[in-house]
Amino acid sequence: MKEKIAVMNRWMDEAIAKGGDAAQEHLEAVARIIGGQVAQLTQPEDMPKVLTRTIEEMGKGVTAGMLMQHGRAGMLDVRMFSVGHS
After folding, report:
1. 79 near 56, Cβ under 8 Å?
2. Tally of CB atoms within 10 A around 18
């Protein structure tokens, strides 16, 4: 897991170094990749539960990142109220 985190951090550092909108584009690409992986690994009826857990884990990452990068402690409460599909 540490190796995967190191790679993701390196990709973010590279995007930041490019400047402009590269960091936001990186985050959007990562979000699409995660979404695709969740869909690949999850049965449709389990999607709300898996999405909720994934989003909760992202919230933990934001909370830790805010403390490490900005010295702000707190709790990010992320809630998903519905999932729709067609």
Report:
1. no
2. 11
| C-alpha–C-alpha distance, residues 13 and 2, integer Å | 16
Could you read off the pLDDT of 5-34 as tens digits, one per residue? 899 889 999 999 999 899 999 999 999 999
Of the candidates 19, 28, 23, the residue with the CA atom closest to the CA atom of residue 11 = 23
Other CB atoms within a 10 A radius of the CB of residue 15 amount to 19
User: Residue 52 and residue 68: Cα distance in Å, rounded?
Assistant: 24
Contacts by 49-53, CB closer than 8 A, 24 or more apart:
51/80, 51/83, 52/80
Q: Does pTM surpass 0.85?
A: no
Q: Are 74 and 65 in contact (CB under 8 A)?
A: no
